[in-house]
Structures are given as structure tokens and as C-alpha cells.
Amino acid sequence: MIKTFTFLKKKPGLTREEFLRYWKEQHGPLAEKLVPGLRKYVQCHPAPGFESDIDGIVELWWDSPESFRTFVSWKESDEAKELKKDEERFLDTSQWNRFVAEEHLIMEK
């Protein structure tokens, strides 16, 4: 299992509330529909009362490194234009920071 964590910043001019609402209600369902090979999609919104330099974290789960690589190739294809156009509506894509991870569970209660 491969996970990606992408740290997101909202597009200038949007309030954090506008950003979070659009991400959850519009972009999330679109990504679910369009992204090939996606196993799990989690949006991490800021907890009330806690400040952060980022506006959200998207966690995507993939069955294998190959399925993630397929997504990376897809993202550069014409098939991904709809998703990329939507991202430009609410994200400052110049400030993305992605981390690709392999999970190692140490403890669970």
C-alpha cells in the first residue's frame, strides 16, 4: 500500500471556509469519479482553534507503487484536464508539497 500526502494552500482571494467547502463538496466528488486506481481519498481539514500555515492535506491511497505511477502519468494526460482545471479554481498549485509514503504501523489501540 502506498499513500501520498499533499499539503495544500488555497488560492489567493478565497477565504479558508470557501476553500474547504469547495474542496469537500465539489472537488472531492470529482476526484473520486475521475482518478484511476485510487483506493482511498481522505481530506484533512484544519481543526477549529488550531492555526496552520497550510489550508489542508489530501491523503490518497494506492494499491502499489505502480498504481501511483499510473496516476502520475494520467495526471499529465488529456484525460486529467477536467480535474486540473478544477484544481486551478481553488488551489494554489505552485505551493503543493507531496510526500509519498509506505506505512509502517508501530502501534494501534
Characterization of the model:
- The structure is a single chain.
- With 109 residues, this protein is of the alpha+beta class.
- It has one domain (12-102): Alpha-Beta Plaits.
- It is built from three helices and four strands.
- The protein has a four-stranded antiparallel beta sheet with strand order 2-3-1-4.
- Helix 1 packs antiparallel against helix 3 (81-90).
- The longest helix has 19 residues, at 16-34.
- The chain is globular, with a radius of gyration of 14 Å.
- The relative contact order is 0.29.
- The model has no long low-confidence stretch (mean pLDDT 95).
Break the fold down into its secondary structure elements and pairings.
Blueprint: E1 2-8, H1 16-34, E2 38-44, E3 56-62, H2 65-75, H3 81-90, E4 97-102
Antiparallel strand pairs: 1-3, 1-4, 2-3
Helix pairs in contact: 1-3
